[in-house]
Design a protein that fits this description.
The protein is an all-alpha fold. The protein is 70% helix and 0% strand. The relative contact order is 0.05. Residues 29-104 form the NTP pyrophosphohydrolase MazG-like domain.
Length: 218
């Protein structure tokens, strides 16, 4: 298959660059030093997607893929890690099959909402050792994405979440309203990002308080 052979070629390019007689910069990198590049490439891909720039999307997908290959190659060469891109692909394929029993098994899911329920149920079985709905939530996510994630987790924990302010009916108007809030905040010397993250920390504490309460049905 052409796609497979080109992917193999990219893996070989990475291996060549990381050889002792390869690129000195590549040889010096660590998982930690590459984080900034992963974030940058991901942001560039998001930009390409949101601006509907197809050529840029193709390029940025390649850059993100290269970051994945870089980390996998590092892991293969790092004592105590010992996995490579084949292991990553194998684990991911197994996870996707396991989380889609409505496709690969006997479960049924008639619509997208049902698919989400099946996905979450399977994920809970896989992560049975987790004790909080907040486990696995990366708190370093962009604040608005984190807010949406935490709202969903709060509902799972049984915390009633209700909107406190009216919102516009479309995303363009919502974006303008959010921007207006940031502009007004800056005019008052307030840091909107810090304010939201502080609110999310308080919200997280509320979720944990709800989780800590005794189960009345227990």
């Amino acid at each position: 298959m052409t796609d497979a052979s080109e992917l193999d070629r990219l893996v070989a390019v990475m291996a060549r660059l990381r050889r002792p007689d390869g690129c000195p910069w590549d040889a010096e990198q660590t998982h930690g030093s590459l984080v900034r590049y992963l974030l940058e490439e991901t942001a560039e891909l998001v930009e390409a997607i949101e601006t509907h720039d197809v050529p840029a999307m193709r390029e940025e997908l390649g850059d993100v893929l290269y970051q994945v290959l870089f980390h996998a190659d590092l892991a293969a060469a790092t004592p105590g890690e010992g996995f490579d891109i084949e292991d990553v692909a194998r684990d991911t394929a197994a996870k996707m099959v396991g989380r889609h029993p409505h496709v690969f098994g006997d479960a049924e899911a008639a619509d997208a909402d049902a698919v989400v329920e099946v996905w979450e149920a399977q994920k809970r079985r896989e992560k049975a050792d987790r004790t909080s709905v907040l486990d696995g939530v990366p708190m370093a996510m962009p604040s608005l994405l984190l807010a949406e994630k935490l709202v969903g987790r709060a509902e799972r924990a049984g915390l009633e979440v209700r909107a406190g302010v009216p919102v516009p009916d479309d995303e363009d108007a919502l974006g303008d309203a959010l921007l207006d809030t940031v502009i007004a905040s800056a005019a008052k010397g307030l840091d909107a990002e810090r304010a939201l993250r502080s609110a999310l920390r308080r919200f997280t504490a509320r979720i944990r308080e709800v989780e800590a309460q005794p189960d009345p049905e227990a």
